[in-house]
Design a protein that fits this description.
Length: 346
């Protein structure tokens, strides 16, 4: 009997030891710092840009601070003129936003209808007064405009690419749609009613009045807000209170039974990012996408050129092609609208 008892006691000791070890192993795995078994990260637009992080309330900017950001990143966009053009009818300017940079190549977001003069050379005027002319092949569009109805199949969005040795700040985008009632700010370069050559920068504040879950098939518009705008501000940015771009302004709106008190319409910047990815542009893919933090811009000195263009006709005129030998009009209401690549005028 003694050997049996000894054997039984040894077996019991082993079982007790196993139970005790299992208890301590389970306890240690529950301690802080233990690795989870599975990781299920949330992704935004298949990883193009990390999802917007929750920003501390102290990061909210004042209206003047957002305006500082807007002045440095908002650009004026217009078709190039040649000597002999009538600028009052040939020039059809709009606005845009410096949205990305890769090396010395900058990317400007604007509306498709702002760059609708096919075959034209376009100019981008930055906040320091420099005008960069780009050929039409450096403009990427994300929709197609019907020349008879002006209806846009797809998104009323475009990206302009230009080169510069200068170091310009880049606007930060936020893929969040926001909420109705939140403040927004719109900036741009409106046209004067008297067709004078002077242009003055405009910055206005309003509130989000509606957000469509499915954007309008005519241009992709779905962000509605009360901020006052005027013709010429199309393509300009819509900022939130953190100084981040949430939309691209493009149209004046009217109230409907479903949506009331509508002033203006924009396209959520989410769609711009998604369309750029579909077109295989590297514009928003890290590490290429490296925007300037809004707070880093609020103390920067602002030159007078950021708020005034003394003579837009002079700024956008140059002899890149003699008008007598051009195959296409230089732009404006008489120019052709966007079409397929087979009928593009170069």
């Amino acid at each position: 009997m003694v050997p049996s008892i000894a054997k039984w006691m040894n077996t019991g000791a082993i079982l007790v030891t196993m139970i005790v070890l299992g208890y301590f192993i389970a306890k240690s795995s529950a301690q802080p710092g233990a690795l989870p078994r599975t990781v299920n990260p949330k992704r935004s637009l298949e990883g193009i840009i990390p999802p917007p992080q929750k920003i501390a309330q102290t990061s909210v900017l004042t209206k003047d601070e957002v305006n500082q950001v807007a002045k440095q990143t908002t650009v004026l966009v217009a078709n190039g003129l040649v000597k002999g053009d009538d600028p009052t009818t040939a020039l059809d300017p709009g606005s845009g936003i410096l949205i990305s940079k890769i090396g010395k190549t900058y990317y400007v977001a604007t509306n498709l209808h702002v760059v609708a003069a096919r075959g034209s050379e376009y100019g981008v005027r930055t906040y320091d007064g420099e005008v960069y002319f780009v050929p039409y092949k450096n403009i990427y569009t994300f929709g197609k405009q019907d020349e008879n109805t002006n209806r846009i199949d797809g998104f009323d969005l475009a990206i302009i690419q230009f080169e510069s040795q200068k170091n310009y700040p880049i606007a930060k985008v936020n893929l969040g749609a926001g909420s109705v009632g939140e403040p927004v700010f719109v900036s741009g370069w409106p046209d004067p009613e008297d067709k004078s050559p002077r242009r003055d920068y405009r910055f206005s504040q309003g509130k989000v009045t509606s957000i469509l879950t499915v954007p309008d098939p005519d241009g992709g518009y779905g962000l509605y807000y009360s901020a006052a705008t005027r013709r010429g501000m199309s393509g300009g940015p819509v900022f939130n209170t953190y100084g981040e771009v949430v939309g691209i302004h493009g149209r004046g709106g009217t109230a409907t039974k479903q949506i009331v008190n509508i002033s203006n319409l924009g396209i959520l910047v989410t769609y711009l990012v998604n369309e750029a990815k579909k077109s295989q542009l590297q514009t928003f893919i890290p590490p290429n996408y490296s925007p300037t933090e809004p707070r880093a811009m609020i103390a920067a000195p602002i030159p007078i050129e950021a708020t005034v263009v003394p003579n837009i006709y002079q700024s956008f005129t140059r002899d890149f092609i003699p008008s007598s030998t051009r195959d296409c009009p230089s732009g404006g209401s008489g120019s052709l609208l966007l079409g397929g690549s087979d009928d593009q005028c170069n």
